[in-house]
From TrEMBL:
The chain crosses the membrane at residues 12-39. This is Uncharacterized protein. GO terms for molecular function: oxidoreductase activity. It comes from Euplotes crassus. Keywords: Membrane, Oxidoreductase, Transmembrane, Transmembrane helix. Belongs to the short-chain dehydrogenases/reductases (SDR) family. InterPro entries: NAD(P)-bd_dom_sf, Sc_DH/Rdtase_CS, SDR_fam, VLCFA-Steroid_DH. PROSITE patterns: ADH_SHORT. It is found in: Endoplasmic reticulum. It holds the Pfam family adh_short.
C-alpha cells in the first residue's frame, strides 16, 4: 500500500506538472483572453482533482485490515476515550480485535465503558483515570504511562479535547490554559512520547499508527469558537509537520470532522451533523490510505466552498457566513449547552 504522504506528493507533482504545461505557453501568448483562458483551465483542473479525491476517498477506497496491518491483539491507546468519539473508536477497534487502553477524567464513565466493551468483545481493556490538564511536565506524562511499559501499543489516538464557545472577553487565563492543555499540549506530548516506542515495534511488515482528532473549524476562523478553532488549527498544522518528519512505517491521520452528535455539541441533530459511529468508521477507512480526512463528503465539499467559492466572491460575504454559524437555532442551542458546561468546568 502506498504511504499516504508519498501519495499526496505524487498528486501534487502531477498537478504541478499539468499547471506548468499550461503556464509555459503564456510566455509566448500574452493576450488578455489567452491569460483568462489558461487561468480558467487551471481552476478546472483543480476542481477535477478535488472531485477525483472526494470520490476516491468516500466511494472507491476500501478499509485496510487494521488488525493485520498493526498486529492482532496489540493495544490501541485512546485519550478521552470514555465518551463520544473516543468511546466509538474504542468500540470499533475492539470489534477488530485490538486490546484497549482508555484514558479519561471520568472514572464512572471509564468503568461503564470497560464493562460494555468487554461484554461485547473478548478483548482486554485497561483504564487510566487522569486529569490531563494537571500534567505539567514530561515527567508527569511518564508517570501516568508507567503501567503501560509492557503493553504492545500499536495505535495512538489523540482524541481528548474541549470545545470553547465563550466570548473572547470572558475567557480567563486559567480557562485558556485548560483548553490549550487539552487541545494542544496533550497532542504534542503523547505523540512525542509514543513516537520512538511506536517506531521501535515496526519491523518487516509490521506498522504503527497515530490518529489526531482535529476539527473542520481548524480550516478557517469561526466566530464563537475562537479558542477551539485556533487550538484545533494548531493540532492540524502540527500533524502536517509531523507527517513530513515521521518514518514511513508509521501511518498518521488527521481527522477533521464537522459537527458530531455528542455531549460536546449538546447531541445536536441536523442535516450536517453526523453520529460518532459514522465519524469513526470513515476515519478508520482513511487510516493508511490518506493523511487527512474531513470524515464525510458533505464537510469536504462545504469546506471547499467556504475556502474557495465564498472567499473569492466577497470577503464580507465570507464573514457573514461565518457569523451565521452562531445565529442558527441549532447552533445557538449547542453553544448554550457548551458554554454552560465550560463555565462549570473551567470556572476560576
Amino acid at each position: 500500500m502506498t504511504d499516504s504522504v508519498s501519495l499526496t506528493q505524487k498528486e501534487l507533482m502531477l498537478n504541478a506538472g499539468i499547471a506548468l504545461g499550461i503556464l509555459i505557453p503564456l510566455f509566448f501568448c500574452c493576450s488578455f483572453w489567452t491569460v483568462v483562458f489558461y487561468i480558467g483551465a487551471i481552476r478546472l483542473i483543480g476542481n477535477i482533482s478535488f472531485l477525483y479525491r472526494t470520490v476516491k476517498e468516500y466511494y472507491l477506497t476500501k478499509q485496510l485490515d487494521l488488525s493485520q496491518r498493526y498486529g492482532e491483539g496489540t493495544y490501541a491507546l485512546i485519550t478521552g476515550g470514555a465518551n463520544g468519539i473516543g468511546l466509538e473508536y474504542a468500540n470499533q477497534l475492539a470489534k477488530m480485535n485490538f486490546n484497549l487502553v482508555i484514558i479519561d477524567l471520568n472514572q464512572e464513565a471509564l468503568d461503564k465503558a470497560k464493562e460494555d466493551i468487554t461484554k461485547a468483545s473478548p478483548i482486554k481493556v485497561s483504564t487510566i483515570q487522569a486529569d490531563i490538564t494537571r500534567l505539567r511536565s514530561i515527567a508527569d506524562y511518564n508517570d501516568l504511562l508507567k503501567p503501560l511499559r509492557s503493553f504492545d501499543i500499536s495505535v495512538l489516538i489523540n482524541n481528548v479535547g474541549a470545545a470553547s464557545t465563550l466570548p473572547f472577553n470572558e475567557a480567563t487565563p486559567s480557562f485558556v490554559s485548560t483548553i490549550m492543555d487539552l487541545n494542544i499540549v496533550s497532542v504534542v506530548a503523547f505523540t512525542s512520547l509514543f513516537y520512538e516506542r511506536l517506531l521501535a515495534r515496526t519491523n518487516g511488515d509490521k506498522r504503527s499508527a497515530i490518529i489526531t482528532v482535529s476539527s473542520s473549524s481548524s480550516y478557517y476562523p469561526v466566530p464563537n469558537f475562537f479558542l477551539y478553532s485556533a487550538t484545533k488549527g494548531f493540532a492540524s498544522y502540527f500533524m502536517s509537520t509531523f507527517m513530513k518528519e515521521k518514518s514511513p512505517k508509521i501511518d498518521a491521520l488527521t481527522a477533521c470532522p464537522g459537527f458530531v452528535s455528542t455531549s460536546m455539541t449538546g447531541y445536536r441533530k441536523d442535516s450536517i451533523t453526523i453520529g460518532p459511529d459514522l465519524c469513526v468508521k470513515n476515519s478508520l477507512r482513511s487510516l493508511g490510505n490518506f493523511s487527512t480526512t474531513e470524515v464525510t463528503y458533505k464537510v469536504r465539499i462545504m469546506i471547499s466552498g467556504i475556502m474557495q467559492g465564498i472567499w473569492y466572491i466577497d470577503s464580507c460575504l465570507f464573514n457573514k457566513f461565518l457569523e451565521s454559524l452562531g445565529t442558527s437555532d441549532a447552533n445557538k442551542k449547542a453553544f448554550e449547552v457548551m458554554s454552560k458546561r465550560e463555565r462549570q468546568l473551567f470556572k476560576d
